[in-house]
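INTERNAL AUDIT FORM
Audit reference: QA-55
Scope: verify that the stored structure record matches its stored sequence.
Auditor: D.O.
Record contents follow.
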Amino acid sequence: MANDLNRVCLIGRLGKDAELHDTKTGKQYMKFGLATNRRKGREEVTEWHNVIVWNEKLVENLHPYLKKGKQVYLEGLVTSFESKDRDTGEARTVPLVEVSFGHNIQLLGSKDDTSSVNSTPASVVDDDPTAPPF
Protein backbone atom coordinates (compact mmCIF):
# COMPACT_ATOMS: atom_id res chain seq x y z
CA MET A 1 0.00 0.00 0.00
CA ALA A 2 1.99 2.92 -1.32
CA ASN A 3 -0.22 5.56 0.34
CA ASP A 4 0.48 4.49 3.92
CA LEU A 5 2.41 6.77 6.27
CA ASN A 6 4.31 5.93 9.46
CA ARG A 7 5.95 9.05 10.87
CA VAL A 8 6.06 10.48 14.36
CA CYS A 9 7.31 13.86 15.60
CA LEU A 10 7.92 14.33 19.32
CA ILE A 11 9.24 17.06 21.61
CA GLY A 12 10.19 15.81 25.04
CA ARG A 13 12.90 15.34 27.64
CA LEU A 14 15.27 12.43 28.17
CA GLY A 15 14.56 10.39 31.30
CA LYS A 16 18.23 9.44 31.64
CA ASP A 17 21.42 9.71 29.62
CA ALA A 18 21.29 8.04 26.20
CA GLU A 19 22.92 4.58 26.16
CA LEU A 20 25.29 3.35 23.45
CA HIS A 21 25.08 -0.26 22.27
CA ASP A 22 26.67 -2.35 19.53
CA THR A 23 25.00 -4.85 17.22
CA LYS A 24 26.51 -8.31 16.69
CA THR A 25 28.08 -6.93 13.51
CA GLY A 26 29.71 -4.04 15.40
CA LYS A 27 27.41 -1.18 14.36
CA GLN A 28 26.70 1.36 17.09
CA TYR A 29 23.18 2.41 18.01
CA MET A 30 21.66 4.46 20.81
CA LYS A 31 18.67 4.00 23.13
CA PHE A 32 16.88 6.40 25.45
CA GLY A 33 13.52 7.07 27.05
CA LEU A 34 11.71 10.26 26.08
CA ALA A 35 9.00 11.82 28.26
CA THR A 36 6.25 13.91 26.70
CA ASN A 37 3.57 15.71 28.71
CA ARG A 38 -0.02 16.46 27.82
CA ARG A 39 -3.05 17.85 29.58
CA LYS A 40 -5.93 15.54 30.49
CA GLY A 41 -8.54 17.76 32.03
CA ARG A 42 -6.78 19.64 34.83
CA GLU A 43 -4.13 16.96 35.20
CA GLU A 44 -0.79 16.73 33.42
CA VAL A 45 -0.05 13.23 32.12
CA THR A 46 3.44 12.01 31.18
CA GLU A 47 3.84 9.51 28.34
CA TRP A 48 7.12 7.57 28.03
CA HIS A 49 8.48 6.62 24.61
CA ASN A 50 11.25 4.09 24.04
CA VAL A 51 13.55 5.50 21.35
CA ILE A 52 16.21 3.67 19.34
CA VAL A 53 18.55 5.51 16.97
CA TRP A 54 20.12 3.47 14.14
CA ASN A 55 21.52 6.41 12.20
CA GLU A 56 25.26 6.25 12.93
CA LYS A 57 25.79 9.93 12.07
CA LEU A 58 23.17 10.98 14.63
CA VAL A 59 24.60 8.58 17.22
CA GLU A 60 28.15 9.84 16.76
CA ASN A 61 27.31 13.54 16.75
CA LEU A 62 24.54 13.74 19.34
CA HIS A 63 25.34 11.10 21.97
CA PRO A 64 27.62 13.40 24.01
CA TYR A 65 24.74 15.91 24.36
CA LEU A 66 21.83 13.55 25.06
CA LYS A 67 21.80 13.72 28.84
CA LYS A 68 19.01 13.33 31.40
CA GLY A 69 16.60 16.27 31.21
CA LYS A 70 17.76 17.44 27.76
CA GLN A 71 14.86 18.56 25.58
CA VAL A 72 14.85 17.28 21.98
CA TYR A 73 12.70 17.30 18.90
CA LEU A 74 12.80 14.07 16.94
CA GLU A 75 11.29 12.59 13.81
CA GLY A 76 11.06 8.87 13.36
CA LEU A 77 8.65 6.01 12.84
CA VAL A 78 6.59 3.87 15.17
CA THR A 79 7.50 0.21 15.37
CA SER A 80 7.41 -2.52 18.02
CA PHE A 81 9.20 -5.64 19.17
CA GLU A 82 8.21 -8.74 21.09
CA SER A 83 9.53 -9.17 24.62
CA LYS A 84 8.87 -11.46 27.56
CA ASP A 85 7.57 -9.96 30.78
CA ARG A 86 10.26 -10.34 33.48
CA ASP A 87 7.79 -11.34 36.18
CA THR A 88 5.27 -13.51 34.33
CA GLY A 89 7.28 -14.68 31.30
CA GLU A 90 4.33 -13.78 29.06
CA ALA A 91 5.00 -12.34 25.63
CA ARG A 92 4.23 -8.66 25.20
CA THR A 93 4.54 -6.13 22.43
CA VAL A 94 6.69 -3.11 23.26
CA PRO A 95 6.11 0.06 21.19
CA LEU A 96 9.23 1.83 19.97
CA VAL A 97 10.10 5.05 18.15
CA GLU A 98 12.82 4.31 15.60
CA VAL A 99 15.09 7.08 14.33
CA SER A 100 16.85 5.82 11.26
CA PHE A 101 18.28 7.16 8.02
CA GLY A 102 16.49 10.22 6.68
CA HIS A 103 15.09 11.09 10.13
CA ASN A 104 16.03 14.02 12.32
CA ILE A 105 16.89 14.89 15.93
CA GLN A 106 17.26 18.50 17.07
CA LEU A 107 18.61 19.58 20.43
CA LEU A 108 16.38 22.06 22.22
CA GLY A 109 16.73 23.68 25.63
CA SER A 110 16.95 21.83 28.93
CA LYS A 111 15.98 22.74 32.46
CA ASP A 112 19.59 23.40 33.46
CA ASP A 113 20.85 24.74 30.13
CA THR A 114 22.31 28.21 30.66
CA SER A 115 25.02 27.87 28.03
CA SER A 116 25.08 29.59 24.69
CA VAL A 117 22.87 28.22 21.96
CA ASN A 118 25.94 27.80 19.75
CA SER A 119 27.77 25.53 22.20
CA THR A 120 26.11 22.36 20.86
CA PRO A 121 25.01 21.36 17.38
CA ALA A 122 21.42 22.39 16.77
CA SER A 123 20.57 19.65 14.31
CA VAL A 124 22.07 16.73 12.49
CA VAL A 125 20.16 15.32 9.52
CA ASP A 126 21.22 12.28 7.52
CA ASP A 127 20.80 12.82 3.81
CA ASP A 128 21.00 9.16 2.71
CA PRO A 129 17.61 7.49 3.32
CA THR A 130 18.60 4.54 1.08
CA ALA A 131 21.57 3.40 3.17
CA PRO A 132 21.00 0.15 5.11
CA PRO A 133 20.32 0.63 8.84
CA PHE A 134 22.74 -2.10 9.95
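Auditor finding: record pair retrieved intact. Residues 23 and 29 are 8 Å apart (CA to CA).
Action required: none
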